[in-house]
Amino acid sequence: MDFIDLMQLVVYGLVLGSILTLGAIGVSLLFGILRFSNFAHGDIMTFGAYCAFAMVSGFHAPIWLALPVGMIGGALVSVAADQLVYRRLRRTQPVILLISSFGMALIIRSIAQLIWGPQDRSFVKGIQMPIHLGDIVVRPDHLWIFGGCISIVVLVHLFLTYTRMGKAMRAMSDNMDLARVTGIDAEKVIICTWALGGALAAAAGVFLAMDSRLTPMMGWSALLPIFAAAILGGFGKPYGAILGGMIIGVVSELSTAVLPSAYKPAVAFAVMVIMLIVKPTGLLGARR
Amino acid sequence: MTFELSGLASYGVFLLTLAAIYGVLSLALNVQWGMTGLFNIGIAGFYAIGAYTSAIVTTPPSSEHLGGYGMPFLVGLLAAMVMSGLIAVAIGVITISLRSDYLSIASIGIAEIVRLIFKNEDWIGNGVRGIAGIQRPINDNPLVYLGVVLVILALVYLAIEQARKSPWGRVMRAVRENELGAQAAGKNVFRFRLEAFVLGSVVMGLGGALYAHFVGFVSPEAFEPVFATFLVWVMLIAGGSGSNKGAVLGAFLIWIVWSGTELLTNLLPAGLTTQASAVRVLLIGVLLQVILLRRPEGILPEERPHVGASPASSNEDEDEAV
Q: Which segments of chain B does DSSP mark as H helices, in order?
């Protein structure tokens, strides 16, 4: 294992990390505002990816057009789940919502499987010509994924910083009661948060499916590293999710130098457990 | 030696045996979630540990996996419980004091790692090929095995019901309802939570062992891990979490509903038959949401002691705003 091999793994790690970042930002935003760990997040990723896939395979749409369609799909499912079920459970114990979202995960996955079938799908057909950067090899897909994720993260940052709704979301996340007193329409902010979280999940799903393969189980398998990333960065802190996602991505890929690659989720988990023991509030200090 | 029962009777025995095994799991989850409020969605992990342990301990020696040690059935069950318990202690010491959503994520991780280990470490359980030839006790008659499982279910029920009524069970409820209050009353909350986690995991391991001896075969994919976990949760919620009678009732009821959905999916048009499992999962998922929305306390709600002015009602959570 020389330096070039390690750098190659770091490149893969950054690609995986950017996907995890997108997923983790959604989880963190929802937690910040609703105090709710959404276990259906992974399956919303799957659903959004299938929506985009339907555009690509059905209408031969290019990926830059299919991606927003997938994101709209993810946002709609996310808002529908809230309006049909979560909204009515919001006043009960938070753990009831956890159980409900666990059930919601299976519902969304089953629907995706009923519509698109259980078989593996692939976004990219044929062989891609790799790009050589010195001795490091990069697939064109990887550039798309990394660039796409960075762009979306920047857009989210601008949205949270400069728009009225973005500011309202941050206010609700900081102090729900105070935000309400200032006249923020909480219900509207919650719906927008679900839509944003769902859209980000769907984008992560599309990129994950481009990186590997699209299967009904894809999103559920990604849930563990995504939550690991969110917790590492500080649960409820969207900016921490970027840090957490990148660390989990790079560490997972680097671990394949010494461990069978099947154990990648276990490595993500180990990093998370160590963080929880050392500093449970995460790198950027989540609220308890 | 094989025993032939008529079609319907043998299906009934099959159904009841699995329902009883799920009853054991549902009781185990009731110790963790219903009584103590520990959110474990890694049931399948301990279930698999129990199933594999008993398989390795009871099968005849084999070059394909660890062991086997050719021990009797009861030794297999005991080993399954001890092994699940030891692993639960190791995991619990690290994770048990986490907040409920962190604990639940940690429990997904544990189940996933257990699955990965059994899948990738061929020397333990023969990898994806699994371990076959696990014997039932006494003889191969399914009716005898149903009897064995029912006796064990009854013993587990009595033990856990005894624990629930004991001072230990009261502390558990206190920990669940008001952790700080329990601490202020001088209770070592960490120790009590750990005990409940380990006890529940031991019983989950037992359930896994009973399953392994029933089907005679274990493999990493034989459990449908996420789904088995989910079904146990639906059973406990439907029956009434906190109530042991409810846990058992929920297991039988939901298992019958789940098996009934199979009859329903047989009516699907031919093109959709490959999708039958997705339809069934969808139905059970919707059923859970309906229960949570309409009757979150379950069919047999937990019996609460009547104390002073606060009557035993199941709606005491309503003051929790958003």
A: 7-29, 43-58, 73-95, 100-120, 122-125, 142-165, 167-177, 179-184, 189-215, 225-239, 244-265, 276-294
Contact map slice: B 213-252 vs A, CB within 8 A = 226-227, 230, 233-234, 237
Asked if the C-beta of B71 comes within 8 angstroms of chain A's C-beta atoms, the answer is no
Percent pLDDT > 70 in chain A is 97
In terms of pTM, does the model score above 0.80? yes
Alpha-carbon distance B212 to nearest alpha carbon in chain A (angstroms): 25
Q: Across residues A250-264, what is the average pLDDT?
A: 87
Residue B297 maps to a domain: no
Quick: pLDDT tens for A176-199. 788 888 888 888 899 999 999 999
Query: Does residue B21 have a pLDDT over 50?
Result: yes
**Distances from the Cα of B121 to the Cα of A252, A254, B110, B126, B134, angstroms:** 19, 21, 16, 7, 20
The answer to whether B130 and B222 are in contact (CB under 8 A) is: yes
Quickly list DSSP for chain A: --HHHHHHHHHHHHHHHHHHHHHHHHHHHHHHHH----TTHHHHHHHHHHHHHHHHHHH---HHHHHHHHHHHHHHHHHHHIIIIIHHHTTS-HHHHHHHHHHHHHHHHHHHHHHH-SS-B-SS-SPPPPEEETTEEE-HHHHHHHHHHHHHHHHHHHHHHHSHHHHHHHHHHH-HHHHHHTT--HHHHHHHHHHHHHHHHHHHHHHHHHHS-B-TTHHHHHHHHHHHHHHHH-TT-HHHHHHHHHHHHHHHHHHTTTS-GGGHHHHHHHHHHHHHHH-TTTTTT---
Of A92, A235, A277, the CB nearest to B320: A92
Confidence (pLDDT) at A274: 84
Residues in A touching B101 (Cβ below 8 Å):
37, 94-95, 98
Say how many domains are in chain B.
1
Torsion of CA A215, A219, A224, A225, to 10 degrees: 90
SS3 annotation, B236-298: HHHHCCCCHHHHHHHHHHHHHHHHHHHHHHCCCCHHHHHHHHHHHHHHHHHHHHHHHHHCCCC
Average predicted confidence (pLDDT) for chain B: 83
CB contact under 8 Å between B102 and A106, yes or no, is no
Q: Which tens digits make up the pLDDT trace of A41-59? A: 999 999 999 999 998 888 8
Identify whether B151 is part of a domain.
yes
A3-120+132-278 has which fold? ABC transporter involved in vitamin B12 uptake, BtuC (1.10.3470)
Q: What are phi and psi of A5, to 5 degrees?
A: -60, -40
Domain extents in chain A: 3-120+132-278
**Residue of chain B nearest A36, judged by CA positions:** B101
Q: How much is the mean pLDDT over chain A?
A: 87
Look at residues A219, A228, A217 and name the one whose alpha carbon lies nearest to residue A264: A228
> Three-state DSSP class for B179?
helix
DSSP state of B318: G
Domain interval for residue B35: 8-223
- Chain A residue with CA closest to B277: the answer is A110
pLDDT of A267 over the 60 cut: yes
